[in-house]
Design a protein that fits this description.
37% helix; alpha/beta; eight-stranded mixed beta sheet
């Protein structure tokens, strides 16, 4: 039996790979996509999601627009890693959608999908957590319909947008704290420490691009993203952060998780948006939240290639 899956996203190059992975995986049923501000503004993230849906031949999946700003404080700035439009300036190379956004907002779509589900739904937030925080705040009774959250976000040993904070959590720390600290939904956090270790090379991307027209279109979106990693990390490849989280949603247990107590820094100092992980042995008690800490790295890359090459 397939697992119903909702992806909450801010496409984003790695988000594009994540959506494609879900579309290519028979273990899950992609029942909805919701968009949020993040890598670029909400209008662009939503437009990108619609074009990616068209590329993947999944016009049946509803796409609903969500939050265009954080819960409380203004968003300082958007990411530059993904280019001017979120897809390396190449969003227009994707097919024009034949279906527009769902008339419902993101929270309403998620609510109605959860209410209608006959089995637990996995939600994979791979952008700022604003939409999910709003869902849980407005509809706490629906928590029982959520099988698991698989959240791409945070860094155990530092960040990427600041020295301390990873972009998704930093974009709305108050929402992140609401979801990761104050709620009790079973949650797996996939931090950038692990996703960086799952990075793929430019050669891997080139090989993937030769497998199909859809794969080639995906790879064609990576130019600015590749430039960013070459410039900042000296690495000829990319980190497909969000696809690693979706891989765990597709194959639970693909990533090794450790039960940690966590917090999110919501102060206004240099640590704002940081994921604070208590790694003391005495604090490791079984709970609702685990942090993904390890995996078979080559196995993850092979899984991604196998699925994405089947598009």
């Amino acid at each position: 039996m397939t697992t119903p899956l909702i992806i909450d996203t801010d496409p984003g190059v790695d988000d594009a790979f994540a959506l494609a992975l879900a579309a290519a995986s028979p273990e899950v049923e992609l029942i909805g996509v919701t968009t949020v501000f993040g890598n670029v503004g909400l209008a662009d993230t939503t437009r990108n999601a619609l074009r990616l849906r068209a590329l993947l031949g999944r016009e049946d999946v509803p796409v609903a627009a969500g939050a265009d700003r954080p819960l409380v404080h203004p968003h300082p700035h958007l990411s530059s890693a993904h280019g001017s439009d979120g897809l390396s300036g190449r969003a227009a190379t994707l097919p024009e959608p034949t279906r527009g956004t769902d008339p419902r907002d993101a929270v309403t779509l998620m609510r109605e999908l959860l209410e209608a589900a006959d089995r637990p739904v996995t939600i994979v937030p791979i952008g700022p957590l604003t939409n999910v925080a709003l869902l849980l705040a407005a509809h706490p009774r629906l928590k029982e319909k959520i099988g698991r959250l698989v959240v791409m976000g945070g860094g155990v040993d530092g960040g990427n947008i600041t020295a301390a904070a990873e972009f998704n959590l930093w974009s709305d720390p108050e929402a992140a704290r609401r979801v990761l600290v104050e709620e009790d939904v079973p949650t797996t956090v996939v931090p950038m420490d692990l996703t960086h270790r799952c990075a793929v090379t430019a050669e891997w991307l080139a090989e993937l691009g030769r497998t199909s027209a859809r794969a080639a279109a995906l790879v064609g979106l990576t130019a600015d993203y590749l430039t960013t990693y070459r410039r900042f990390l000296g690495f000829d490849g990319i980190v497909v952060h969000d696809a690693v989280a979706v891989a765990e949603a597709i194959r639970p247990g693909l990533l090794t998780g450790t039960p940690y107590a966590v917090d999110v820094d919501c102060t206004f100092g240099p640590g704002r948006g940081a994921l604070v992980v208590d790694r003391r042995l005495e604090s490791r008690a079984p709970g609702n939240l685990t942090v993904a800490t390890d995996t078979d790295l080559d196995g993850v890359r092979a899984f991604l290639f196998e699925r994405l090459s089947s598009l």
